[in-house]
Every structure is written in structure tokens, then in C-alpha cells.
Amino acid sequence: MPGGRLTNEDRQHIAAGLAEGLGYAEIGRRLERPASTIMREVTRNGGPDDYGAERAHEATRHRARRNKQAQPPASPIPDGGHGRDPQEVRDFTESFTALLVQQGLPQMMARVLACLYITDSGTLTAADLVQRLRVSPASVSHAVAFLEQQGMLTRERVPGRRRERYVIDDEIWLRSMLAGLQMNEALAAASRRGAEVLGAATPAGVRFESSAELLHLVSEAFRQVMEQWRQGQAARHPGTLTPRDETPPGPR
Length: 252
What we know:
Layout: H1 8-20, H2 24-31, H3 35-44, H4 53-70, H5 86-102, H6 107-117, E1 123-125, H7 126-133, H8 137-149, E2 154-157, E3 164-167, H9 172-198, H10 203-236
Antiparallel strand pairs: 1-3, 2-3
């Protein structure tokens, strides 16, 4: 993939691709750019429904001038001796954050989660997050509280100190899927009840029964995927514990 910044001509092609209804991957292929670059460009400049090439180009130039004048040097990203390219890491972090936002996570929560996710330890203190993200302690505190409520991180006390640190682990998406599965089971149960109340032979009852069948299939697929993942983890990391007992039971 070629490097360098997007040109005005590139942005014209992006706008044309969005107008055609093309996805980020297809637009990226046509421009020989990563799909993440296209997604980041569109997300930062109005989204797919409000992207304008000229406006995006001017906004980018304005941001570049403003950053050059006002921004302090970027905080270095610890490498840990792995030989990573700091700029590539920053670019990936930005695109990953944009993806989390596109999936529905609020901006600050997405930034905190991405910042934690790229660390090898999966652990940072509030002070670390404030320094790396250049935001206020209150912003970090609010984001952490939200992510903790969603089961996406946990708090730990630094041994021998009053300071807390925030931790993510390899099961972050498993917990998210489990929460989704529990909601799916509740919807399936409600749909089955709806079919009973409205009458299985009526149009409304048929609609609820059909929904219940689909939701049941989705739940079963989720269970199979999670069990397959658990088996793979157990084979690669003997003794690894996963929240098996949290999986909601299937319909009886």
C-alpha cells in the first residue's frame, strides 16, 4: 500500500465511491489504500452520509496548521523492545478508535479502551491515560466508569500504594458476547411469549414465532463459537479459566 497523505483527488474518489454505495474496503482497493485509512478519513469528516471532498480537504489542512502551531510533541508510545514503528502504532490506534466509535462506543470511551488495548500489559493508571490521551482526569474517570459498567475493564489497586490501575484481558470480547447472548435470550423468550399470547396462527403471532426461531439460532451459533474459542484457548494455554458458568442456558 502506498504511503503519504490523502490528496484532494483521493478525497474526490472517496466521495464518488460513497455516492455509489461502496464500502470502505472497495474504495480502499480502488485507491490502493488500507480500508482503515478510508474509514478514518470519512469518520473524521462528517461520516458516510455527510462526507464532502472539498470540505474534508480544507478541514484536514486546517487541522494540520492548528496542530503545528498549538500541539505539544506527541507523547512517546512505549515500545517495550519489540521494534515497533511508533507512527504505525499511532495510526493503527487512531483507526481502531474510529472503528470502536463506528460500532457505537462514545468517543472518549473508545480512546481509553484503545489506549489500554495496545499496551502489552493491558494495564494503565489514570495518570498514564491522562498523559497519553492529553485529557482531563475527570474525562478519564468518566470513561473508566462507563467501561467498567460494561464489563470491558476492571480496577486493581497498585500494591503498596493508593493508586488504582485499569486492566483489560484476553476475554474482553467474550464478556461482551455473553452480555449480548443474555439479551438475545431475553428477546427470544419474549418473542415466544408474544406468539402464545397473540396466537400462533395470527399474522402477529407468526411474526413473533419467526423472530423467536431466528434468535434461537443466533444464540446457538454464539454458544458454538464461544465453546470453540474456549477449547482453542485451553489447548494453547493449559489451565486458562474462562467464564463458562456465565453462559446463559438454552431454551428448555
